[in-house]
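Journal club side-thread
Mid-discussion, someone asked how the predicted structure for our own chain would compare to the paper's figures. Pasting it here so we can look after the session.
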Amino acid sequence: MFVSSSNVEIRPLQRAFHKTTASYKFLWLLVILDLVKEASHDAGPLRLSISRICARMVAKSWIPTQRFKLSFGRWDQITTIIESLKNPENDFPFDPRYKEPEALRVLEDFAIAQPEKFRKIIFSPLARYVPYRFLSVWFPKAVDSYKEAIAFNSKKIPTISPKIA
């Protein structure tokens, strides 16, 4: 899937995509690449927020699932998450016509205005396993402690600062 290079160790990345039954690994990587591309490289080390990544994963999936009615598969959580946002009880200003930047802005506003609902609908389903499953190929000996940390932290209310990097 990836071309070998003597300059970059790609085997962990190849292993991350060895078994894929859902979109989350691809979305996770695409969002991280977007954040790295957008980051100011003279601002020091890049810090990535799992909450921000989760919101962007949903925004990146908006057009395929809403406009083109694409299903990412039976076990995929992205479509389920977006469908949950349609429920009027969730106080989300749902519009199937959002473009990715608009969906992202609305999702970030939702995270700030309704942090408990954001945690329940978006953050917990994605943050509980996505980082663990994607990163476990790089840190195989730390898998159990990382899984426990993610499970613990996914129960907390996530935060997204009003200024999104």
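Post-session note: The chain has eight helices and no strands.
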